[in-house]
Amino acid sequence: MSRPRAFPVVVAGFSAFLDLYATQPLLPFLARTFHASNFAVSLTVTAPTLAVALAAPAVGRLADRVGLRRTIVLSSFALALATALGATAGSLEQLIFWRFAQGLVSPGIFSIAIAYIHEEWPAAKAGSATAAYVGGTVVGGFTGRALTGVLTSAVSWQSSFAMLSVLNFAAAAIIWWRLPEERRRVKVADGSAARMFATHVRNRLLLATYVAGFCILCSQIAMFTYVTFHLAAPPFGLSTAALGWIFATYLLGAAVTPVAGLWIDRFGLRAAFIVAVAVGIGAAALTLAPSLTLILAGLALFGTSVFVTQAVASSHVAVNAAEGRGFAIGLYATCYYVGGSVGSAVPALMWGAGGWPACVAFVVAVQLVMLSIAGLLW
Questions:
Q1: pTM of the shown model
Q2: Backbone angles phi, psi at 371, to 5 degrees
Q3: Which of 171, 165, 138, 166 is nearest to 72 (CA)?
Q4: Any idea what the Cα angle at residue 300 is, between residues 298 and 306, rounded to 5°?
Q5: CA quadruple 112, 136, 309, 275: dihedral, nearest 10
Q6: DSSP letter string over 69-91?
Q7: Torsion over CA of 75, 140, 20 and 107, rounded to 10 degrees?
Q8: Sequence-separated (6 or more) residues with CB below 8 Å from residue 310
Q9: Rounded to an integer, what distance in angstroms lies between the CA atom of residue 355 and that of residue 353?
């Protein structure tokens, strides 16, 4: 795996996740600005994840037909445009609309990048390449959240979206310039989508991994969306800018995930997944501590756990898809982001019933499902 080939894939991960959860640190601010409920402003997170879930299978099918690189490049420029238009929103409803548009084009980057890796990299190095890509998504996710938090406090939330679009356009240009054409392109026969769908959902390993993907993002979104309300309230009272910086906890994941990729290649996907989920359960419990330092430590460990499980589950899909890899990963992305939509909505009910401890109980329950899947079905 040469560095010139890896770099644009990492940039693709950075770009795709730069925007996807960028409004998370803004939720308390948006609730005050638009005089809206926690659930209403959480739709700025739900809308893009739901859009991804709807678009991912179609994008996977398109990539199998027109090529992986072409799909990634076009989607990168489309995401930059949708983000720029998001800066023009004048109401919560308009913001949610443009967030939905961002989600529609995002799977053409991150879902297809995984398929690209497993088409272009040797099988023995695919785990490391996927982990490097996930490291890019981690840095992108942190950058987007920190940038929106700081710029919203200093200028306006619209200016933060404008800056995100500049970064998206720059990333799209790099991907267009540096990402090589795939060495071979597998054509999918006309009329085979239904057959391929049936093949994938009858595959027990793929089906189990789709459920695992649902749980991964469900727990991540629940944790990192509702912790902002917890930390904005007394006794912590963090500002919007400070809430943006709590996502610096993602940087531990950026450092650990590529190293974990080497461990994945050596010891296997199942072992890595089980260990990562066990860490995530302990980390979630740590966020119940009354100390901000311990909460941040718990968030750092939880984020790292999520990033490793995502690298493992994505690889598990690509390894076990005998044909139509782009379509298989598109189905995984649908389940993954349906989970994200559930994770952004259901904890609103948990919050009303029991505050942050109830949200953490929900996260731990979802993590236990993940542990059961890997232990019993993989």
A1: 0.78
A2: -65, -40
A3: 171
A4: 100
A5: 150
A6: HHHHHHHHHHHHHHHHHHTT--S
A7: 30
A8: 134, 213, 216
A9: 6
CB atoms near residue 23 (< 10 Å): 29
Element (H, E) at 139: helix 123-154
What is the distance between the alpha carbons of residues 146 and 331, in angstroms, rounded to a whole number?
A: 30
Inter-residue contact 275 to 354 (CB < 8 Å): no
CATH of domain 3-177+196-376: 1.20.1250.20
Residue 369 Cα to chain centre, angstroms: 19
pLDDT digits 0-9 by tens, 242-290 = 998 888 887 887 777 667 766 777 777 888 899 999 999 999 999 999 9
pLDDT tens, residue by residue, 80-136:
999 999 999 999 999 999 999 999 999 899 778 878 887 888 776 776 777 778 778
Q: Measure the CA–CA gap between 44 and 301, rounded to whole angstroms.
A: 25
Read off φ and ψ for residue 90, nearest 5 degrees.
-115, 0
Residue-wise pLDDT tens digits, 206-249: 888 899 999 999 999 999 989 999 999 999 999 988 998 888 88
290 CB neighbour count, 10 Å cutoff: 8
Token readout for 197 is 């769908």
Exposure string of 221-230, with b = 16+ CB inside 10 Å and e = fewer, is bbbbbbbbbb
Distances 15 to 12, 111, 197, 323 between C-alpha atoms, Å: 5, 13, 29, 28
Query: Where does residue 207 rank: exposed (0-12), middle (13-18), buried (19+ CB within 10 A)?
Result: middle
Of 58, 63, 55, 61, the closest CA to residue 79 belongs to 55
Instruction: Return all residues near 80 (Cβ < 8 A) that are at least 6 apart.
Output: 165, 168, 169, 171, 172
Q: Kindly give the interhelix angle for 107-120 and 325-376, rounded to the nearest 10 degrees.
A: 80
Distance CA 323, CA 316 (A): 14
